[in-house]
Write a structure and sequence with these properties.
two-stranded antiparallel sheet; 22 helices; single chain; 60% helix
């Protein structure tokens, strides 16, 4: 294990996090939040900068990283970022319990959006900014940004890090040089973020929050860009005007698209984008899901509390399907009291997620398509042992290794989901009653199996809000400290797509060979 090289890159990440903390520090100063809030960011900022600088001192004998080292380093970086990122909440008292603070910022960096905060109105502006900004940081990837600064001679090391952090079964460069690839991705990411802030600023301010329009537009964009889902006012996005809700839904769709396709658009290869199999599957599933939910809300096969106009039914259908499919987790209404067809559709899209190479979580559409083709091939082989597979994905022949890797990932995904549900069943909260106050009225739900199942699913798919006792108008505060740590690791497993975390905690990774 190349410990000195790992330490150097980890040190760079720590210095980067200290620089990023200057943003919430500036917010604390701008809003005159006092010495306590300023120190809440100044102290961890200084600690990160000093430790990061010290880690740059040892000279590595080998500059390259092997694949195992790249995967382990990726998981280690995300854990270190979270450990330090939680400190400001504890110092300023917004989240005094460190385990709760760890859960909150892990949810931020992994773009999950699950929260333990019971009253968002008590949070300082700097804390609201930091937790939403963490979505934007984690959306494109922490190490992807650092790859811009890794020398071109370490292209192999860069590729290992990119594969460990980027979502999807097939990860590669969009141009010949890794530095150029990462710069293009970040410029697209930044450009889309700036565009969304600009469009949101065109809307009327939220009544009662007239002086906060730019601040709220910025936080909403952080959540959409990273497909996170932290609310920063009561009831998530419910208080936003319809115009802003439509804008956020549209941008969530955009951020759920593979960023490589935007590069193809920029260089004029529109046909290549339209021919993308995953792109077409993504929009087909999204359209079908919105249609099913909309029909169930309009025709009212079952009785449910809310009464919507046709426009409201369409808007909420579009927003909630897009929000959960892109694993953002923003909400505009209490979807868990919807008819069974609607809620079942939402659970399905939570599993599937958006496109690989986007900022979304979930299994990803590319894996779903490859898995279906793999099942078809295996059935054909059973019928005719002489059958020669000719399946293609994105105009490339699917080899057996790719199909097996997808099957292995999906198997691991469901195994870890079941394990998380099993471990949550030991929590003392099970069987307790939770009161929910939403636009559907006030009602009580019991924390049972579906609460645990949907919590685990929401965390491993990086969605955030779930159902029942952890639904869109509830939170994760009732879980024990042990359960919160389990769910935090589940979020990390989902964001890094399992393998880097398993490699980090494998004893064989650290044995001398």
């Amino acid at each position: 294990m190349n410990y000195k090289k790992l330490g150097k890159i980890l040190g760079k990440i720590m210095i980067l996090e200290s620089i990023l903390m200057l943003a919430p520090l500036a917010v604390a100063i701008i809003y005159h939040e006092g010495v306590k809030n300023i120190l809440a960011f100044a102290i961890p900022l200084a600690a990160l900068a000093v430790i990061g600088a010290l880690l740059q001192l040892p000279k590595a004998k080998r500059e390259t990283l092997y694949q195992k080292e790249g995967f382990a380093l990726t998981a280690m970086v995300w854990l270190v970022m979270t450990l330090f990122g939680a400190i400001p909440f504890v110092i300023n008292g917004d989240i005094p319990n460190y385990v709760n603070a760890f859960f909150e910022i892990m949810s931020g960096f992994t773009t999950t959006g699950a929260s333990i905060i019971t009253d968002i109105t008590l949070m300082s502006h700097s804390s609201l900014f930091w937790r939403s900004f963490s979505h934007w940081i984690g959306g494109m990837g922490i190490l992807v940004f650092v790859l811009i600064f890794i020398p071109e001679s370490n292209e192999g090391s860069s590729m290992h890090l990119l594969r460990a952090e980027s979502p999807g079964p097939q990860v590669g460069k969009i141009v010949s040089k890794m530095k150029v690839t990462t710069r293009i991705l970040y410029l697209i990411y930044l450009g889309m973020s700036v565009l969304e802030v600009t469009v949101l600023m065109m809307d009327k301010p939220i009544p009662g929050y007239e002086n906060e329009q730019f601040f709220f537009s910025l936080l909403a964009t952080f959540g959409c860009a990273g497909t996170g889902g932290f609310g920063f006012i009561p009831n998530s996005m419910e208080l936003f005007n319809p115009f802003s809700q439509y804008v956020m839904a549209i941008f969530l769709i955009f951020f759920g698209v593979n960023f490589s396709l935007y590069y193809l658009l920029l260089i004029g290869k529109v046909r290549a984008v339209l021919k993308s199999e995953e792109f077409k599957s993504y929009f087909l599933l999204l359209t079908l899901a919105v249609t099913f939910v909309f029909i169930s809300l309009v025709i009212r096969f079952e009785a449910y509390p809310q009464v919507y106009t046709t426009e409201e039914a369409f808007r909420h259908s579009l927003f909630q399907v897009v929000s959960l499919m892109t694993t953002a987790g923003f909400t505009t209404t209490d979807y868990q009291v919807w008819p069974m067809l609607a809620t079942t559709t939402l659970v399905v899209v939570m599993f599937m997620g958006a496109m690989a190479g986007s900022t979304a979580g979930g299994i990803k559409m590319s894996r779903i398509v490859i898995a279906l083709k793999g099942i078809y091939i295996n059935i054909r082989k059973l019928i005719n042992p002489r059958y020669v597979p000719k399946a293609k994905f994105e105009e490339k022949t699917l080899d057996e290794r790719t199909i097996n890797d997808v099957f292995a990932f999906i198997t691991l995904y469901f195994f870890l989901l079941i394990m998380a549900v099993f471990l949550l069943s030991f929590d003392p909260i099970n069987g307790q009653t939770v009161t929910v106050v939403s636009d559907a009225g006030t009602y009580t739900v019991e924390h049972g199996f579906f609460s645990n199942f949907s919590s685990a699913l929401a965390c491993i798919s990086n969605v955030g809000p779930a159902f029942e006792a952890v639904g869109p108008y509830a939170n994760y505060a009732g879980y024990s400290a042990v359960s919160k740590i389990i769910l935090s690791l589940t979020m990390l497993l989902g964001r890094l797509e399992i393998l880097p975390v398993l490699i980090l905690f494998s004893p064989k990774t650290w044995k001398k060979t």
